Amino acid sequence: MEFPISQIVKSPTVALKVGSLEFQAGEIGEQFETYHVHESVLIRSSHYFKQVLNSKFQEGIKREISLSSPVDTPKACELFLEFAYYGKCLPLQTASNPLLLYGEAYLFAEKIQATEFKDYIYQRARAEAEQSFRDLDFLFKTVKPTDLLSQARVELLETWASLIEMIYEGTYDNKDEILKAATPSDAETLFKDHLNNMKSWLEPSKIDLFRGLLSQISAQYPLVIACSPRIQKLIRCTPDFAADMFNHQLRPAVEEIEQAQIFAVPHLYSVTRKKVRLVPE
């Protein structure tokens, strides 16, 4: 998403203040980072900034925008600005935990409605998570809990638990609507139709992308996840996360039913919430 430099330099700049209120010595103080960003870059990269800067809001008139919610962190904003100017971004080499930083950036992208940046961060987070869990799975099978290398296992699982808390608290999906559509409304609903609805319910695109990433990998590595009491508690206390994990575990069973071609037999199946019954031809 690179922009011609000639268009960028002709654009006025906007003071973008990003940070939050912090307590210091018993007093509340504002801890902000200020970035002077070209207006054209903000407008093209974020629907939120486009609305603010193209309106008569005070922020647009003063050419100053302050973001101070919990998801507005300087590190996340810096990743966004790097992507907005260059079309790609990477955590600084000094970043101790890129996965957590990707989680922060994802929530920031959702807040400012930066669709391309959000998709990019999701792809980077998926690649990082898949590699990390492949390595962790190897360690789980070869390294004893008392070995020094087991520390990598502990750190990743702690990061994963923090991501689950962060993402499930800060994102939403339309699972309730999908579940309602997948639930048979009467006794005459055909089993095949119900199965198709269930397949729609299980589609990853139907839930938030980052939620799908967290639940899919958690379901893929159950023995590793079981090593973390904190994640086990989250499964019990976060219904959405538990349901998403179950969806990924259920998918192979749904595919197996479909591959068995049970619909080839001369029977029609009707499914209700309480029972399955055979319908005569």
From TrEMBL:
<dbReference type="InterPro" id="IPR011333">
    <property type="entry name" value="SKP1/BTB/POZ_sf"/>
</dbReference>
<feature type="domain" description="BTB">
    <location>
        <begin position="12"/>
        <end position="88"/>
    </location>
</feature>
<protein>
    <recommendedName>
        <fullName>BTB domain-containing protein</fullName>
    </recommendedName>
</protein>
<dbReference type="Pfam" id="PF00651">
    <property type="entry name" value="BTB"/>
</dbReference>
<dbReference type="InterPro" id="IPR000210">
    <property type="entry name" value="BTB/POZ_dom"/>
</dbReference>
